[in-house]
Amino acid sequence: MKTDDLLQLLSTDSFVSGEELSRSLGVSRSAVWKVIRQLREEGYKIESVTNRGYKLVSSPDVLSEAEIRKGLSTKVLGSMISASQTVDSTNEEAKRQAALGAPHGSIFVADQQTGGKGRLGRVWVSPPGEGIWFTILLRPNDAPVHAAAITLLAGLAVCKGIRNQFGCDAKIKWPNDVVIGSRKVCGILTEMAAEMERIHYIAVGIGINANTPSFPEELQVRATSIALELGHPIRRCELLQEVLLEFEQLYDAYFVQRLPGFIEEYKNWCVTLGRTVSTFHAGKEISGTAIDVTLEGDLVVQLSDETTITVNSGEVTVQGIYGQ
Amino acid sequence: MKTDDLLQLLSTDSFVSGEELSRSLGVSRSAVWKVIRQLREEGYKIESVTNRGYKLVSSPDVLSEAEIRKGLSTKVLGSMISASQTVDSTNEEAKRQAALGAPHGSIFVADQQTGGKGRLGRVWVSPPGEGIWFTILLRPNDAPVHAAAITLLAGLAVCKGIRNQFGCDAKIKWPNDVVIGSRKVCGILTEMAAEMERIHYIAVGIGINANTPSFPEELQVRATSIALELGHPIRRCELLQEVLLEFEQLYDAYFVQRLPGFIEEYKNWCVTLGRTVSTFHAGKEISGTAIDVTLEGDLVVQLSDETTITVNSGEVTVQGIYGQ
To answer: With an 8 Å Cβ cutoff, are B197 and A145 in contact?
Structure first.
């Protein structure tokens, strides 16, 4: 019996009898009872009334496979879900499983990362319960040149997910940080294994500061969480489901239908555009106005002499963001 | 004592006494003797004359670490050399060792591959003693977009190595097969692990048909070996050393000095240019004349209506090559 099948059956407005559960799931009533007891231990509130049966009253904020699957409306993303209490890093776990053949659309989630990584080898702090730390494993039948789009899509999916679910004014700092106001709420680390002509896999690691109650003083000017913005904790599982759905729709439009329509929407929510930015280019610091993002994912910067340069990677400081 | 230090000392025109060897290497005379006996078992011809000492007369065609290192004049390539009798695939071995931290410039050679791979998952037949099957591990401090150049550089290095050493009229079939006449003598499979902005490593797998005595009938129109072209077997180690040296020079010019000067030389030896080619483009078969190779590694094809398209990956059939 799958725990998530039971949860699905219990998630109705009316009570369901033990006999009906036992029949629907094809297991004994004592097996049903054991799983209900286990779910209660995990924090699920399951009401039981003699002669009427069981009803799910509330679920805890756990990122279990069953919780994630319940109500997940994606077609392919999440066909395999690996949910752990603790891993070194969900990207590392995804890469290990990819080497063993994990399929396209596999999701790796952890309540806590002990070695969470940001871009360029930086540390990403990932305490238990505070964030949504997960990796989406993708196997597009495509050349590595298309991988840059993935990272833009991922940022856009998180931005839209947060906007839809909580109404926060989330925006994207190019290429794929998600910010609320001037503070970072999500970082993304995309890694790939490829031949020159063919991607073996892409691991999109996403870290969302969901319920972080507070940040160290030195980070307060540049980091926030959704809970801090809203003034109350959120249910992580629902946001994860929303982000996966948004991502799948954007991905299918780009990789399956070959419609790069996302770029206009991306630019619409991109906080970098129109601002003064500075970066290192060809070995020296330059600054100018960010005026466009190309389909290849490059940022176009107009310098004071009206010439433009395109930046395809690296650090870009945006005036007014992260305390700059 | 390192075996290659001893081989180095023995590789002179005159005899070297056992006492001198023992002193230079800082080991006992019986230790020297043991290594000399072992080398003779491996096929080295070492002359010994009473009261004069030892002299290396000839080396077997083995791809041992000592043989490769002796006379290798690269600066960084080969700082770590792993030479095996048999591996599944030198690219797989390189990737495993890369994950454990193998440094930039490491070389992985095998006398035989049991699971040799070509591009796009194809099988690469790699019998013992017949070829030079090796992988160069690189860690350029660069974005994945530069990886395409690597694969052109590798093809050019092999082409030049064969030309320099044997005078064969080796050429390059875009992007990086090496051909003699209309037949393939070398294939290259480049794989990488990367973030969007940073290459973690590149594994350049190179398979050269060096001493293959004959090919199955169905392959004879499209495959050759250097031994078949010359009419006698070659010493694999010397060609490997030459290719490594060529590659290092090209690599340093491109990645260190940022001089993309190689592209003119590449085009000079590219057999594809000026020929009729056909390929699949945007879902349909097209054919035209190959007229250029760009710095990004793309092939420019002019169609019959004078328009041009650029091809950045996939199969390109070249009239007159591989029996087409």
So the answer is: no
